[in-house]
Amino acid sequence: MSNNHSNTFLMHGGRVQTCDFRTPPQEAIFVRDGKVAAVGTLADLEKVAKPNIDRIDVEGATILPGFIDTHPHAMHFAALTIAAVDLSDAQSHDDIIARIRACAASTPPGEWIFCTPVGEAHYYIRRSYRDLPEGTLPNRWQLDQATDKHPVFIQAYAPKQPNMVAFNSLALGQLGISEVLPRRVCDVWIDRDSEDRVTGILRGAVTNYYTRDPLWLQILSKLPPPPPALWPVAAQAGMAEMNSIGVTSIFEIHAMTPDQLAAYQALRRDGKLTCRVLAGLDVADQAFNVHFQPSDTQIRDLIDFMRASTTLTDDWLRIEGVLLCRTGPCNPGFLRMYEPIKAPFGGETYGLEFLPRRVEETVVRYCAETGVRLSALLATPPDFDDFFSTINKLGVQEAVALKRWIVQHAILVNENSARNMSKYGMCCTTSKGFHWGKGDLYCERIGEHALNDLVPLRRLLDHGIKVGGGTDWGPKSVLEQIQLAETCELAGSGRKNLHRTQPISRAEAIGMFTKDAAEVLGWDGIGSIEVDSHADFAIMDEDPFEVPVDNLPKIQVLRTIVGGQTVFAAGKTR
Questions:
Q1: Distance CA 119, CA 47 (A)
Q2: CA dist., res. 199 & res. 193, Å (int)
Q3: Given strand 565-569, what is the order of strands in its sheet?
Q4: Is residue 125 within a helix (H) or strand (E), and if so which, with residue range?
Q5: Mean pLDDT, residues 492-514 taken together
Q6: Which residue in 110, 155, 196, 306 has the most C-beta neighbors within 10 A?
Q7: How many angstroms separate the CA atoms of 518 and 56, rounded?
Q8: Is residue 459 within a helix (H) or strand (E), and if so which, with residue range?
Q9: Which CATH number describes the domain made up of 230-526?
Q10: How many helices and strands in the chain, by DSSP H and E?
């Protein structure tokens, strides 16, 4: 299978799954100028393809429309890693020290060296620092062996709390972490050795984001912010990662800031996008600045900006909408509930509101008045009940249905919440990874009854709600997300097929990353292989519709094509 071709070609030699969910598998695709001109039998397509047109033999592979990820944080997750020393697969303390030392050799003295966590972000279930031979992170003195001229920080990503970070001696000095502090400050534990010296290891509420711990927030405020030049680089790296898993279109809106939106716009002008991108802005556009409380004027200004910036005709970058998020995840104790649940460090909590109801009312009212599409990140019954109460209070039901507002995450959805989503014509984006990564956590913090409502895809579909799938915190594989939609596995305990978790069919799960996802985004020409659709394909060594469920994550993406051009190629494997 050659990797070089024009954007006009005949592709054949395998099975074509159109994902229009009407057409049986086909033999060939004829692409003209980056769009699908015909789909059908090879014999029929040979009649319309001129002899000099490129022929691409996929050698028995399966061709699907490129996947659509409706919540990837592609730019954000790439930004966490490209400017950091990658320790995700580090094998020992010696390995960690060697990697940091190599980075220090090319880093100006005094500059911070950031390191990724050890293990599989973000849940750290399959691997973490606990799987190192030493069973922990290296301490300050070990990190000093790598460099004493750079402050070093081994990070911890959300959503896992308690977590662990490590600093070298220079970093501790700059951050003011010393023996003056007690062993525990707020919900951060500062490790000491047998001589009562600070070791550089901190535990507890020490994640990069989704933390409200006063000490840890103070420490984070002393770290250098990401430079604006990072965002275009991160966007390209994030799109490349998406391409490697067969994704050709993404929706970027949660925690998106104006600088980050501008990065996608710059890449579009320079012709450097490798995914089709639908992008919007977060109402709390200072992302994870927990102290930011937008005024009504700031909210209206941002929505006015998005109304003026909206473009829905560009084939590569579409800009639409704002996102409102008033709550956070369960692990740090932010999840809003009517009954108290266990808090991460003892005691009970009813959760936390990031933004007050007045912000929700202002956003809903002004989005309805201006016609700006709203994505509401709703996780629990209190979130849903507040939101629908606001819609009814303001009398904006028609505006919600007209623009097909989106519910994002939809983690604990009862029958009433699903009924209201359907009643007001709303769409949904969610990730079965929330179920996989935190199922046992919900059972521990809330109780087994939480599984009745945890990412209930069957319930959403039965209410006629169009659902788009996302990878978010992981697993970062669309094929594994499809598997989880079918098995409803809880990572860690490995429990599967619980009747209350409402599994869906293989076709329904694939639809959530293809045709249905395109409908959620409101983007014609993606998500299925049909005449006049964009030539966006994911070519795989096996057919996701046919393999046993346990083999889905083993499928290899051989090539990803966007607009008729290859953006990822794994090489000739057959």
A1: 53
A2: 6
A3: 15-16, 62-65, 537-540, 557-562, 565-569
A4: none
A5: 83
A6: 306
A7: 27
A8: helix 457-462
A9: 3.20.20.140
A10: 18, 25
CB 427 within 8 A of CB 467: yes
Distance CA 534, CA 495 (A): 40
pTM over 0.85: yes
Assign domain 84-221 to its CATH architecture.
Answer: Roll (3.10)
Domain boundaries, the chain: 1-65+528-574, 84-221, 230-526
Q: Which whole-number Å values give the CA distances from 391 to 93, 108, 114, 401, 443, in the listed order?
A: 54, 54, 44, 11, 32
The structure tokens listed for 196 are 């009562």
The full length of the chain comes to: 574
Q: Report the C-alpha gap between 252 and 282 in whole angstroms.
A: 10
Q: Which one-letter amino acid corresponds to residue 269?
A: R
Name which of 529, 538, 535 is nearest 8 in CA terms.
535
Nearest to 63 by CA among 549, 528, 472: 528
Q: Which residues contact 460 (CB under 8 A, 6 or more apart)?
A: 410, 413, 418, 421, 428, 430, 467
Continuous segment of H or E residues that includes residue 461: helix 457-462
Q: Is the CB of residue 231 less than 8 Å from the CB of residue 259?
A: yes
Taking only the tens place, the pLDDT of each residue in 276-331 is 999 999 998 665 677 888 999 999 999 999 999 999 999 999 999 999 999 899 99
Tell me how crowded residue 573 is: count the other CB atoms within 10 A of its CB: 10
Contact at 8 Å (CB) between 270 and 233? no
Q: Check: CB of residue 534 under 8 Å from CB of residue 34.
A: yes
Alpha helices for 182-283 (secondary structure H): 214-221, 230-244, 258-269
Sign of CA dihedral 357, 359, 364, 366: positive
Secondary structure (DSSP) of 319-381: EEEEEEE----TTTT----SS-EE-TTSSEE----SS-HHHHHHHHHHHHHHT--EEEEE-SH
Could you read off the pLDDT of 460-481 as tens digits, one per residue?
999 999 999 999 999 999 999 9
In the CATH scheme, what is the homologous superfamily, with its name and number, of domain 1-65+528-574? Answer: Urease, subunit C, domain 1 (2.30.40.10)
Does the structure show a pLDDT above 50 at 34? yes
Contact 458/504 with Cβ under 8 angstroms?
Answer: yes
